[in-house]
Structure formats: structure tokens, C-alpha cells
Amino acid sequence: MKNKIFHIDMDSFFASVELAERPEYEKLPLAVGHLVIASANYVARGLGVKSAMNIVDAKKICPQLTIIYPNKNKYTSMSDKIYSFLSSLSKNIETGSIDEWYLDVSNTQYENWKEIEFASLVKNSIKQKFNLNCTVGNSFTPFLAKMATNLAKPDGFLTLTKDNFKSYIYDLHISKIIGIGPSLTRQLIELNLHYIKDIANVKNDYLIRKKIGLHWSKLRMNVLGIICDPINPDYKRKNLGRSQSIRNYSEYQEFLKLIKELTDDINSGLKYQDFMFKSVNIKIRYSDGDSATKSFNFVNFQNQIPLHVVVDLFEQISDFSKYDQVINLSITANNIMENDNNEQLTIFDSPTQKISTESKLEKIRKQVNKTLNKKIIHYPSSRSNR
């Protein structure tokens, strides 16, 4: 076996776990969610229902949609069982999220098997043991293995080799690259990088590195097929952050818009990976070498960064007279852990946090909406669940 890294991704995991108990819904549209869709089966997806869609909107698109209230304990228990099975195949296993894992079969009894033979073993075993479908991607780097999974979904298998990976991914739009959010996508497009091949074919990347920062080197190595993050069984993420290099910002509204973009990117990552965090940090770097940083510690673990908290931190440490000297701004969610509770926390879960936040949030909401000329920030109607 030349390509020994596998990415296993469960298909519509939450919905599939429910379907395993309700086979009568197999050919009917079904979704798991409370206020928003957490997971939809492929019948529902074929009718236009998508993850993160408001349930009211989903029902308008698909009136016959069956909604099942999420049971996080059930999904976590199933995830643990699948992990236990996969770890019996290789101890070199890394958890990507509740429903995906990376496996390196080097130095195992399977390393001399054909890639498709091992993938078939995984897929057939998971189907027989748990009555669930999964997609398996295989390659010589973890990044390309996951890209293979995305291309092979649902219930498929694909190997990306050193000889064929370019033909599979280089013509894809950069938004298809795993791990980059809307903010980084926008930056790359502004640099006239629209397709993955554009990133691979860059000759002089000095200006790009200056604008994108550390993300660029890792991104370029990934699309060139160079391993930059080997599988690490002991890996546990401690933080999740985003940063942006800045040139010629001078207005408060420009920073406000950027802060919202970075915060939205982090919140998307927190939601996708089902993480909670305990503190948030903002850091500003100036062209003269100075920097300023400030953190806020929450009483309880949170699942989303409240925008008003980050804006408040920015206002505390920023110097209006030096706005045009800011060269980088970063936001980070720290002390991360997996959400082990059925109910996600909100910014109002702690009574000590609720005091005087509503009026301030209303002020920020109006200011951002006015700046961007559209209503993008609104209040949740109640506690969100996954």
C-alpha cells in the first residue's frame, strides 16, 4: 500500500443514527435539530434541506420533513463505539470531530493490503456493526485524504495518489479547500487566487505571505501534497483562532467589519467541531513593533463568541491615533473542550454575564447592520441545541 492515510467520515451522522433506530423513515426526508438543522439525511438534502438551515425555512422547503430532537448522549456513545473499532485497526488514530477520524495504517497488519481492500473492510464493518454508512478517503497526506472523502460522499471511497491528486482537486474553487472560512476565501480571491491550482502555481508569494500570514505556508504545502500535520493520536486542540494582516485601515467601521468576519469564522469552526471554550483573546500588532492584547474569561463554557465581547476588547486596547499603523489583528477562543452536554450554552447562560449586555449588544448590532447596509446580526429566540 503506497497511500497509508485514511479519513473516515460518517454520512449524515446524527440523522443516520436516528434512522438506524427508525428504518421506516429510510426513504423519507428526516432531519435532526431544534432551532436549526444539525443533520439531514440525503433524501432531505435532495429536496433542498441543508445543515444550519432554520427549521422554519426547512419546513417551508420540505413540508413533509420529519424533525427529531437531538440526543447528544446517543451520538457521543455511537462515536465512541466507532472510535473503539477503528483504534483496533491502528493505534495511530486522530479524532477530527464527533463523526470523523484519521487513520495511519503504517506498521500494521494492513499496510501491505490494497487501499480499496482496507477501505472495504472499514465500510463493511461499520455497516455490519452499527448499521451506518461512511465515506472513506485515502491518500499520502491527511489533508488530501479528507479532500478525497469530500469528493467521494456519500457512502463512497476515493484514493488520491501522487500521480492523480492534481487532476482531482486543482480545478476546484478555493472555497472547497477544507479548513478555510469565508474571510480567508475572500482574501485569496482579492489576490486573484480563485482555484486551487492558482495557489499551487504561485511563483513569488512574498506579498501573499505578508497579507495572509502563517495560514499561507500551511495552505500551500497542503495543496502541493506536502505533509505539514502528521496524524497525532494525542492531539487535542487548545484554541481556535483567526488572524488577518491589515494594510491602510483608518476607520473604526473597517475594524468592526473585520472583527465580525473573523468572529463568524471562529464560530463556524466551533459549531462544526462541536467545541466549547472558556475565554476569548484579541491581539493587535502595529507597524512600529508594538502590540496590545486583552482577554475575557467567561464564568461558564461557551459555544459561540458574542460579537459585543470582542468589540469591547478591541475598544479597550486599540489606539484611535494609531489605527493606520495596525498591521495584524487576531482573535482566539481559548481553553477549548468538546461539548459533552446535550444543550449548547449561550451568552446568557450565566446570570453574571446577562447584566447590562442586552443594551450594549443592541448598540453593536445596530452599528454593524448600519455599517454593512443589511441586517446580518439578530438575536437568537432561545437557547440553541445541536
Concise synopsis of the structure shown:
Helices cover 40% and strands 20% of the residues. The chain is of the alpha+beta class and 386 residues long. It folds into three domains: 1-169, Reverse transcriptase/Diguanylate cyclase domain (Alpha-Beta Plaits), CATH 3.30.70.270; 170-223, DNA polymerase, domain 1 (Orthogonal Bundle), CATH 1.10.150; 239-372, Dna Ligase, domain 1 (2-Layer Sandwich), CATH 3.30.1490.100.
Topology summary:
Blueprint: E1 5-10, H1 13-21, E2 30-33, E3 37-40, H2 42-46, H3 55-61, E4 66-68, H4 72-89, E5 93-97, E6 100-104, H5 115-130, E7 134-139, H6 142-152, E8 157-159, H7 165-169, H8 182-190, H9 196-200, H10 206-212, H11 214-223, E9 239-245, H12 252-273, E10 275-286, E11 291-302, H13 307-317, E12 326-334, E13 337-338, H14 351-354, H15 357-372
Parallel strand pairs: 2-4, 7-8
Antiparallel strand pairs: 1-6, 1-7, 2-3, 5-6, 9-12, 10-11, 10-12, 10-13
